[in-house]
Structures are given as C-alpha cells and as structure tokens.
Amino acid sequence: MPDFGGLFKDTPEFLLTWLPLIFFGLIVYLLWRTLQLMPRIKPSSIEPNSATSVTWNDVAGVNEAKEELQEVVDFIRHPKRFERLGARVPKGILLYGPPGTGKTLLAKAVASESGAAFYSQSASAFVEMFAGLGASRIRRLFAEARKSAPAIVFIDELDAVGAARTGHGFNREQDQTLNQLLVELDGFSDRDQVVVMGASNRLQDLDPALLRPGRFDRQVHVSPPDVAGREQILGVHTRGKPLAADVDLTWVARQTAGLTGADLANIANEAAIFAGRSERQYITTADFDAAIERVVTGLQQRRHVSEKEKRILAYHEAGHAVMSYLMGDVMPVHKATIVSRGQALGYTLNLPGEDRYLHTKEELVDMMKVFLAGRAAEFVVFGRVTNGAANDLERVTTLARSMVFEYGMSEGAASRTMRADNYALSEESKKLRDLEQARLTDEAYREAVRLLQKHRATLDRVAHALLEKETLVREELEALLGEVGQESHAAETVGTPRALPLAD
Ligand code: ADP
Ligand code: MG
Ligand code: ZN
Questions:
Q1: Considering only CA atoms, which of 267, 273, 299, 271 is closest in space to residue 285?
Q2: Contacts by 432-435, CB closer than 8 A, 24 or more apart
Q3: Distance from the CA of 316 to the center of ligand 3, in angstroms?
Q4: How far is Cα 347 from Cα 303, in angstroms, rounded to an integer?
Q5: What's this model's pTM, rounded to 2 decimal places?
Q6: Local structure of 278: helix, strand or coil
Q7: CA-CA-CA-CA dihedral for 21, 22, 28, 30, to nearest 10
Q8: Which among 76, 271, 365, 440 could bridge 291 via Cys, Cβ 3.0 to 4.6 Å?
Q9: Mutate-to-test residue for ligand 1 from 62, 63, 105, highest number of ligand atoms within 8 A of CB
Q10: Would you name the residues annotated as active-site residues?
Q11: Centre of ligand 1 from the C-alpha of residue 370, in Å
C-alpha cells in the first residue's frame, strides 16, 4: 500500500481498503433516494379521487348552501333540461366561511350526489411544489377533468394560491400558479360540463381576479350553524351511537352556541369516549356535558394554585357570576369554577339560552360590566388587581371599540360608522372616538365596582362557596344569588351576539 507520509501508519489496513467503497456506496444510496423522490417531481398521473360516500344526509345545518348547491347537482345530472332553456349554470363556485363549517364536506357531497368525477386538490399542495410545477399540475388537472366530464374540480384552501397579491410572503411561484388557474377558469366553454368548486376561509383575502365574472362568480357562504342547525349536525354525528334516554340534543345544541360542525363532530366523539371510559353501554347527558367542557375550554389540566391565589380567583369568578345575575338575561351564567382548565385559571361560563344577534347599547354596556366584574371584585376585596383579567380586558376593549367605531353608539355620533379603516375620518375624529371608547369602558368598570360594593355580602357568599366546592353549577348559583335583585335595564331585547365566550 502507498505510504501517505506515514499519515495512515496506524490506521488498520482494512479501513483503507473499505473506506472509499463505503463512501462510494453512500453516494449511490443518496442518488437512489433522490430517484425515489422523483415521482413527486416528474409528472404523476392525475386520477379522480375515488367516489366519496358523503351524501346530503351527512351534511346538516347549512341548508342555504345545500339549496344553492343542489342546483349544481341538477345541472350535472340533467344538463339537457337547462340547455333547452338557454340557462347557464355558473362554472366556478366558491364556498367560503370559517374553518370547520363543512365546506370540504359539501364539495364531496355535490360530487357524489351528482355522480360526477371528482378531482380534488388542496391549493396549499401546489404552493409546496417546485418551480413551475404548481402551474403545470393545475393545467393537467383541468385537462384530465375535461376528458372525463362531467366532472368537478375542487380546489380546497384556495387562499394558499389565491391570496391577494398585496400580501407579504407572496412569491413568483404562487403567482404563476394563480395565473394558470385563471387561464384554466377562462378557458373552458359552457359545454365542457366541468364545474370548478373552490373553498376559502375568507372572501376578502382572495385575489379579486379570481372573483370576476366567468371565474368563481358564484359565491356560497357557509356559515356556522344556528341552534337548530347544531341540533341537526349533532343528529348526524350521533347516528349509530347509542344514546341514553335522557340525552336531549336540543339541550346540547343550546350549550354550544358559536361552535362549528367540526367542533360538534368532536363533541359527539368525545362524549362517546367518556362513556366508553366509564364502561357505560349508552352515552349519557353527563358525557355530553364533559365533552362540551373539554372541547370548549381545552383539555382539563390541573395546575397548582396556592391558597392565596385561590382566594383571589374565587372572588374574581364570583364577581363575574354576581354581575351576570345583576344584569339579568344578557349573559346568563351556566357555571363558575376555580378549577383551572386549559389556559384560563378559572372561568365563568356564560352561555346564552338562544342565538341572538341584536343587542341594545344598554345590553352591551351590561356585558362590559360582566366582563369587568372579575377585576372589579379583586379591587373591591383586596384593594388591588392582578393580571388575571387580561383576557376579560381584551374582550371589553374589543366590544367598546366595536360600539364606538362600528355600531355608532358613541355620544353624538349615532348615525355614523367610525370604522378604523374609514379614511374619511379625520385624526381629530379618531381621537374623539378613542376617548369615547375609554369613557365607555371606564364607566362600566366604575359601575361594576359600585354594584359589587353594594352587594358585597352576596359576593362573599359566592366566593366562599367557590372556595369550598371549586365548581358551582347554575342551580347552586341561583340558590346563592336568589335574593339579589335584578337591576337589569331590562331593555327591550331583540335578539345575544352569538357565542358569548368564557369570561376568565
Ligand atoms: P371546512 O372544509 O369548512 O373547514 P370540513 O368540511 O373539513 O370543514 O369539516 C370537518 C368535519 O367536521 C367534517 O368532516 C364533518 O365531520 C364535520 N362537519 C363540519 N361541518 C359539518 C356539517 N355542516 N354537517 C355535518 N358535519 C360537519
Ligand atoms: Mg376543509
Ligand atoms: Zn375574568
């Protein structure tokens, strides 16, 4: 063997022989791995997704969207009927609404109800592709769909390519992909029998070019379900699950204002899990109760809380509870607890009895008092406040801001919306609105302090009960609060903005 100036003098000979071989082997292996990844890069065949088994029966609580989409189903099934009349069904349909409301589900249902070939592709997948591939994939997707018409091309998460181009983080790649999508949307004729469906969380964020006539020109809003819708969705997701006789889905629906179909599916599943863990044959109301809590507030997570902290927490939550009774029906309290769950240390669960969308100014002010009552109670009892109210304060700020800037509820500006993005609004006007917003919040806080001082005995009673039992449900609270007079403005109520959140 060669003498490398004695460099490898001590190296065993077999290493010198094998090392280059091992090295070579490694390179071969890496090359092979690269080739393995190639199929993703080289054109892979595009085939329709296997027919989905989702039917209209699996989608509930979104009747308006279903009705609109039924038209598409009819069009695909009986094209002649429409052609004879000279009718043109839009070829681009955009489903938009918050995540978990059932957009993907609806698209699948349209495909299987109409018997069309279903080509589904998530736009976020395009974005991940290498140079130019997103665009070429779109081209081929449409080409294939045309060949096997009638067909539905479904592009999920359209925001990923269709986000307005002004947004930061938008690169050329996405631009190419978006352009190709526009070309395809423009390129097919009425006789193609291809319907393009897209899904997006927010309409405002989409590139306006996508929404022009002839493209995604029909927009179907998929909104979170109302109480009746929630009951129907729960019906879908408890189908085939053994429910105990005491389970009332109407009640469950009423407890879940603001939740989406996906959340409700989650609750139905969690309830079954709770029942299973307790080795029950049937899912009971208690299981649903536990499932709601878990889904609404995150997984139970006990945290260590010192005695002193516990006292503060108890008064904080008692403050919320007492105030919500004082305010009447605006934010009925469902439960108060100092057992920590998820993020919040303790919480008072305010659930509206029904979905309401309209509120008087007085009611909104009352809500602010309920949100601020946690901090007010800390102040009344301990003379100082903690950081435990951060979340409450955020809610109050948002509410007050909306009142002044959007609902025209500030003094002397009852007829104008003062939205922050209203450029016509002068700096001076904005300053005035800001002051008005602060005035509303401060007044609500002072009033909350005053009321809690006045009802100090009740506050003490509830706080002590909380320290003792940690959790008080509605009936227990009612018993403790019974004699507290209802000082609500009892203004004519027209209807709670949905989803009264948890006050922590
Ligand atoms: P999105 O696409 O709007 O984010 P998905 O369609 O992916 O929502 O919904 C996720 C899951 O939640 C569905 O698979 C279904 O189990 C459930 N779900 C959502 N909305 C509904 C609904 N309206 N009816 C029945 N189930 C629903
Ligand atoms: Mg989806
Ligand atoms: Zn609070």
A1: 271
A2: 433/404, 433/405
A3: 6
A4: 14
A5: 0.60
A6: coil
A7: -160
A8: 271
A9: 105
A10: 317
A11: 33
